[in-house]
Amino acid sequence: MMRLTWKDAVATAVAGVNVAVYAAFLQGADLPIIPGVRGVTATILVLGLVGGCALSAADELYSGEKTPARRLFTVVASLLGVTALVAGIIGLIAASEVALAVLFYATIALWFISTVRHTLGIPGAPPPSGRDVHEVIEPEQPARR
What we know:
Helix content is 70%, strand content 0%. The protein is mostly helical. Helix 1 (6-26) runs antiparallel to helix 2 (36-53).
């Protein structure tokens, strides 16, 4: 099993804000900061981009051994990400409540499967090693051979 990191905690907090915003919208709350379908769509889209994309480590998925679990996660996460992005764009342009719902559920699904992946310890890429890393960490000192 793998331990969850601070990034997982931040992503969980962002997912919680998404749930609160969407629930408030569904209840008809009049939020002056987030007016209407477009405002909620923009909020969830931005939170998803910041909380999900900025904190993710997708590069781990594309390097190293391609296990069946990693391939499955990559395909599912990619499909959900594209679905969320397209739904977000449609929601912003057309002010569509259906597109907003698709965006919300795709975003929450991405958070959920990423958290499960981290919890179950589906491995990412091995940590970098070797001379190149040494040169990045201590550029003023030449690598020892």
